[in-house]
Amino acid sequence: VHEAGALVFVDAVHYAPHRLVDVAALGADLLACSPYKFYGPHLGVLWGRQDLLATIDTPRLVPQPQQPPERIQLGTGSFEAIAGATAALRWFAALGGRDTVTRSALVEAFGRLQEREEVLFDRLWHGLGQIPGLRRFGPPAGAPRTGTVSITLANQPAGELAGVLAGSDCWASHGHFYALTVAERCGVLPEGWLRLGLSAYTSDDDVTRVLAALEAAAKA
Questions:
Q1: pLDDT digits (tens, 9 = 90+) for 184-201
Q2: Residue 23: left (phi > 0), alpha (psi -120 to 50), or beta?
Q3: Reduced to 3 states, what is the DSSP secondary structure of residue 129?
Q4: CB burial class (10 A; 0-12, 13-18, 19+) of residue 5?
Q5: For residues 131-145, b (16+ Cβ closer than 10 Å) or e, as one string?
Q6: How far is 30 from 10, CA to CA, in rounded Å?
């Protein structure tokens, strides 16, 4: 991309809660995510190279400072949301055994979470594969991926299936998740997929419960 003279913009909104972001390793010029995905408040986060933020052409108000990052911020920041995002990072640091937010603390925390997530996802992926009529989308367990999987179950609309899971105390979202073209190519419109995701607080019992609920739904 860079050899072609273009910029690399990374949408890391789903990646950020599962893997530690390294903008240098990604070769990113700009990267966006949101703390609401990693246990914080609804807030937009944009990282950009300093030289790029200082020169990129963006809508701006005359009173805005010319220096980054203020030159691309249209108004006062949401300070309470920023405080909440900071608290989320402190929570991650605590998972890494530290009292303060440092890169090493986050490396330790995300390393532990990834190891745990991969074990749970392996069980979830292979358990889903044993359910008749269930289709899994995405790379298999063991491939580079996060602990989230989209599924369909034969002849059962994703919305109704989400309701069935809710009756078993399993929360799962459904729909196209703004990926309309992908949903169209996968042939899942208009209902979309049922999406199952592992979080830091997901337990082995949670995986057992969701697999049991889906097995019962497949037999219904």
A1: 999 999 999 999 999 999
A2: alpha
A3: coil
A4: exposed
A5: beebebeeeebeeeb
A6: 6
